[in-house]
Amino acid sequence: MAKSLKKTPKKSAKKAVGLIVPKPAAKRVAPPRALGATSAVLDRLYDVVVSRKGADPDVSHSARLLSRGTAKVAQKFGEEAVECLIEAVAGNADALVGESADVLYHLLVMWVDAGIRPDEVWQELQRREGVSGIAEKASRARKLPAALGIASTKIP
Hints:
Layout: H1 2-7, H2 10-16, H3 40-52, H4 61-67, H5 70-90, H6 93-114, H7 118-128, H8 133-147
Helix pairs in contact: 3-6, 5-6
């Protein structure tokens, strides 16, 4: 009997004791990257979107989005964010990469629309670097009620 257990594949042995073993994910092969592909691409893309502000909406997707106003820019960002979430929950890494790129692009369009520069966001991230996420969030939760003259951070 001990011999037959040794010959039993591990998956079958695990099923025999009631464990559910997920199938191993297929190895994901990274797409080829352009030389120098780094986060600096966001700064370059931001500059392109800025250059499209006021351009012909029939020629530029960025110009078309920006010409439709803040509500449409924000709506499009939200749609792309939801698509990103769907792919994350589905565990589809390849699609998540593509949707993440869409989210970042539409975030940059939203920044251009709002007059926010990437360096402002990078500075804020740097300010938060090394600060506990829990502590940082708690400090924001205290600041808003105080700014509104509310003594408590609890919802009544």
